[in-house]
């Protein structure tokens, strides 16, 4: 298990980001999706928790298939996806990623938002208790982003918002910018496979950091698109873009319901707290297979899995009361939650 705390500041208020977060997750997921690949929204409904109160539950399937690196495609089924479940009790969210094909792998993200510049060193004292963790500051303006995700229109070194007059953000902007908020993310990655655990967990954290950087950059780069929206308007945008995304990847489920009446804690529910993670297509060096290596003749040519039992759309499992770090997971947002 590898635990890290990420702190991502933005030139916004926590109240403004309530709308911006939902807009960014939906648009980000749509952009990252393609035919047969991307993020399918399975559920998006109001949800009420006895501890955290009224919120929204989302379940998504992140289809990987050809976007997996070659070393992974060799051992997984042709149709492969990661399940993302997110409970959004803004300004507190929980996002979990799991994969039935890799039962020993999970990612768990807890997020809290505050109007400060990342100066609260005790925000996760209850959740993390005495567990050792590394604190990583992510600068949405000057941290390097993977070249494949770079867009000139989203380069915050040169961006100025017409509607808010915020930007251009200079070096050291976090010390002078007003308003400013911080997204605190406590991220736990577990891959309990002997011999690979440490290296895989470190690699996954690198991917998570990249998607958090991308998602939060986009949230501010798109601020003029969402800053005037009401909650009803962003929910309508969510509904429209989610249906378009499902169709884009070739999934035609029943119509998605985004209701306004909270359901009980035993009922299904809705939006992610982090954006879905763009999957890195390059294998980590330690898992790269030499191209000239002879194939083992004893290896099976195909991998046969048991057919899954039919489901009747069971209700989602409520998150743990104290959100223990046993579950979670991309794969932007954000949440999307790349919450």
Describe this structure in words.
The chain contains seven helices and eight strands. It is of the alpha+beta class and 339 residues long. A hairpin with a 3-residue loop joins strand 2 (38-49) and strand 3 (53-63). The two termini are 20 Å apart.
- Secondary-structure element pattern, one letter each: EHEEHEEEHEHEHHH
Residues in β-strands, percent:
15-25%
Q: Specify the structural class.
A: alpha+beta
Low-confidence stretches: 252-291, 293-305, 321-339
Beta strand count? 8
How many DSSP helices? 7
Shape: globular
Beginning-to-end CA distance, first to last residue: 20 Å
As laid out across the biggest beta sheet, the strand order is 2-3-4-5-6-8-1-7
Helix proportion of residues, in percent? 10-25%
């Amino acid at each position: 298990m590898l635990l890290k705390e990420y702190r991502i500041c933005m030139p916004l208020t926590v109240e403004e980001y309530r709308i911006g977060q939902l807009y960014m997750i939906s648009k980000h997921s749509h952009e990252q999706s393609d035919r047969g690949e991307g993020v399918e929204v399975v559920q998006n409904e109001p949800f009420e928790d006895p501890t955290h109160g009224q919120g929204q539950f989302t379940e998504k399937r992140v289809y990987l298939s050809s976007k997996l690196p070659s070393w992974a495609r060799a051992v997984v089924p042709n149709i492969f996806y990661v399940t993302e479940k997110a409970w959004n009790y803004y300004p507190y969210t929980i996002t979990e990623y799991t994969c039935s094909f890799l039962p020993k792998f999970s990612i768990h993200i807890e997020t809290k938002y505050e109007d400060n510049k990342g100066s609260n060193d005790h925000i996760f004292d209850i959740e993390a208790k005495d567990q050792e963790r590394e604190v990583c500051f992510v600068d949405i303006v000057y941290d390097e982003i993977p070249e494949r995700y770079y867009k000139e229109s989203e380069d915050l070194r040169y961006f100025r918002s017409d509607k808010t007059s915020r930007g251009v953000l200079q070096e050291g902007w976090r010390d002078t910018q007003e308003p400013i908020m911080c997204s605190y993310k406590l991220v736990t990655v577990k891959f309990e496979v002997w011999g690979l655990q440490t290296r895989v967990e470190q690699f996954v954290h690198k991917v998570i950091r990249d998607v958090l950087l991308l998602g939060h950059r986009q949230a501010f780069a798109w601020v003029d698109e969402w800053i005037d929206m009401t909650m009803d308007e962003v929910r309508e945008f969510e509904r429209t873009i989610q249906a378009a995304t499902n169709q884009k990847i070739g999934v035609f489920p029943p119509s998605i319901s985004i209701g306004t009446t909270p359901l009980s804690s035993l009922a299904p529910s809705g939006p992610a707290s982090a954006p879905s993670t763009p999957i890195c297509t390059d294998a980590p060096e330690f898992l790269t297979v030499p191209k000239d290596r002879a194939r083992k003749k004893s290896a099976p040519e195909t991998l046969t899995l048991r057919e899954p039992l039919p489901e009747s759309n069971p209700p989602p499992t409520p998150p743990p009361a104290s959100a223990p770090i046993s579950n979670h997971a991309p794969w932007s947002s954000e949440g999307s939650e790349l919450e």
